[in-house]
Amino acid sequence: MANLSTESRSEAIRQARRDLAAALRMADRLGFGEGVCNHFSFAVPGSEGLFLINPRRLHWSEVTASSLLLVDDDGALVEGDEPPEASAFYIHWRLHKAAPQAKCVLHTHMPHATALTMLEDPTLLPLSQTALMFHNDVSYDDAYNGLAGYREEGDRIAAALGNRSTLFLANHGVIVTGGTVPLAWNRLYYLERAAMHQVMAQSTGKPLRPVPEDVAEMTAQQIAEDEVDMAENHFRSVHRILERECPEYRH
After folding, report:
1. Does 105 have pLDDT greater than 90?
2. Is-contact 148 92, C-beta < 8 A?
3. Closest residue by Cα to residue 113 from 148, 138, 88
4. Does the N terminus or the C terminus of the chain have fewer Cβ atoms within 10 A?
């Protein structure tokens, strides 16, 4: 963290830990998790090559700020009990390296969004106002190559994301990114809502009614203008809920 005092830098890292732990805890409450799999990470501001990530073998409901791992871009453990699993490291490391917008990287197998990745055409359609948040901001990886436990697969996934915020991984799950934890978290939450709406609408078997392209583009721009403020307010509410119900997540 350039030009910051040691005290300010330490406080920024503490806040990053609290934010990432809060994102994992609330994601679990919403059913976004899958056992002890999937990972959230955040690149430590101003410390090139260092990022926080949740540890292996720990359920999201158990994660605390202090249990998060701090690793460098050689995979070496800087702080924590043991290095992250290989697939977690290679996906998140290569995304942080290749994608400037991916300061925070959230990877889940959340149900409705993952269901779309299982379709021949996984496109998130402009069917609801919620879906328009992601209009022209989703990439699609059409090749499932097994577990991503090696650098080349991480690089391939990063290339598939490109300069967009969100990536649908074929037959796998999703990756949502943002410049901050609140921004990425807000997108993750609304992505699952948009996917749920689409799956429910498609399940009726009736004709769909997409929003016209010009209206979709206009609405996406309107949402983008207020997205940072909305995300910050949304994430403050996440912290308030957790502080009331499981305050240990902060420690």
Report:
1. yes
2. no
3. 138
4. C
Residue 8 has pLDDT above 70, yes or no: no
Q: What is the token pair recorded at 198?
A: 């689409």
Predicted confidence (pLDDT) per residue in 206-215, tens digit: 999 999 999 9
Q: Is residue 48 pLDDT above 90, yes or no?
A: no
Domains, the chain, with CATH or none: 8-250 (3.40.225.10)
**How confident is the model over 137-167, as pLDDT tens digits?**
999 999 898 787 778 899 999 999 999 999 9
DSSP string of 43-69? EPTTSTT-EEEPPTT--GGG--GGGSE
C-beta of residue 208 within 8 angstroms of C-beta of residue 202: yes
**For residue 35, is it left (φ>0), alpha (ψ between -120 and 50) or beta?**
left
Token readout for 246 is 């499981």
186 burial (CB, 10 Å; 0-12 / 13-18 / 19+) is buried
* 182: its two tokens: 């609140």
Which are the contacts of 98, defined by CB distance < 8 A and separation ≥ 6? Answer: 155, 158, 159, 161
SS3 percent helix, strand, coil of the chain, rounded to 5, is 50, 15, 35
